[in-house]
Design goal:
This protein is α+β, with helices and mostly antiparallel strands and 216 residues long. The chain has 2 domains: 7-123, Jelly Rolls (Sandwich), CATH 2.60.120.10; 133-214, Winged helix-like DNA-binding domain superfamily/Winged helix DNA-binding domain (Arc Repressor Mutant, subunit A). 43% of the residues lie in helices and 27% in strands. It contains 7 helices and 12 strands. The chain has a 4-stranded antiparallel beta sheet with strand order 1-8-3-6. A hairpin with a 2-residue loop joins strand 4 (45-52) and strand 5 (55-63). The radius of gyration is 18 Å and the shape is globular.
């Protein structure tokens, strides 16, 4: 997120940023907390989620270099949970500081708008999938998102998802129970669409996965 900033702007941001460490499972913020801060994830991973029909639904997994908590730009209180998935270090910028950066750097402003747009698109897409698609199609769509976000092409021409996700974590991303994810993933493996090697997901037939996600 900060790549477009000049050296002088980065130094200014560093002076204005308060760093805080969070342990695995610790909450960064809760719904209803005052939204006067924009958060920058420096190390680790943070999960953004909400409650839908008394079940956790993951909106996004934030990785090092990304911002979150940007609801503060339009709302006075947070409307989601932010939880550290692993030991994480978070930089906290006051809202006025963040707005100053947006005003002073057009490229940074454009990047913020792009990130917000992509996050909104992804959330709407997952909510649509939950409403209209069965479990295998939901999982296929999620795996395609993960490949796009963090996929690494292997020597065999397959796609490896860079982060290890448990079935429970995958389930919360698409509104399913863990047992349904396990069953759906097993079905994709049987079809030859995916493989699980050393606890990491490999997509071995991207075209077939796209077809399943689209309902073909």
């Amino acid at each position: 997120m900060l790549e477009p900033l000049s050296a002088e702007q980065l130094e200014w941001v560093a002076q204005k940023t308060l760093d805080r460490s969070f342990q695995k499972g610790e909450m960064v913020y809760l719904p209803g907390d005052a939204s006067e801060i924009v958060y920058l994830l420096l190390t680790g991973r943070v999960r953004l989620y909400g409650m839908v029909r008394q079940r956790e639904l993951t909106f996004d997994i934030i990785r090092a270099g990304d911002m979150f908590g940007e609801v503060s730009l339009t709302e006075r209180t947070q409307n989601e949970y932010a939880q550290a998935l692993e030991p994480s270090q978070v930089g906290m910028l006051e809202l006025n500081t963040f707005r100053h950066l947006v005003r002073e750097n057009a490229e940074f402003n454009a990047r913020v708008i792009k990130v917000l747009g992509e996050r909104s698109r992804m959330t709407r897409g997952r909510m649509t999938d939950i409403a209209l698609k069965d479990s295998p199609a939901r999982l296929a769509a999620l795996l395609l998102d993960l490949v796009q976000d963090e996929g690494v092409v292997t020597l065999e021409g397959h796609y490896r998802v860079g982060t290890h996700y448990t079935h429970e974590e995958l389930a919360t991303m698409i509104g399913l129970k863990r047992v349904a994810i396990t069953r759906a993933f097993g079905g994709l493996q049987d079809r030859g669409y995916v493989q699980l090697r050393r606890r990491q997901i490999y997509v071995t037939d991207l075209a077939a996965l796209k077809g399943l996600a689209a309902g073909d």
